[in-house]
Amino acid sequence: MSFPVTNDPDSDTLHSVIEHVFMPPKLPQKDPGERVEQQTNVALCNSLIGAARDFLRALPSSEYPLWKHMLKTMELIHRAAKTPFEEGDLQQALSSMGLGGMSR
After folding, report:
1. For residue 40, is it within any domain?
2. Most buried of 39, 52, 64, 83 (most Cβ within 10 A)?
3. Is residue 4 part of a domain?
4. In this structure, what DSSP letter does residue 23 have?
5. 55: domain range?
6. Residue 71 and residue 64: Cα distance in Å, rounded?
7. Structural domains counted in the chain
């Protein structure tokens, strides 16, 4: 399953993404809250998946299968960032990541 990377982040979320990616780590002065943290994580996933898809276009076709597995893993992380897994879903997701898993 492929996840669309469409939600443009608001300015606060974009600022948080830039801090995560480009700025040296700093301790937060206050807890940003669960909602803000989730938005930042989803925005980071969107950016990562978008960059990975762009990179895929530049790869030789012999490298596609390996990169497709990485993309599927990134999409799984994106899904978990949007809606945390329940225990059964998590077990299924981790099982599919084993040797030979995630080949769909």
Report:
1. yes
2. 39
3. no
4. S
5. 11-96
6. 10
7. 1
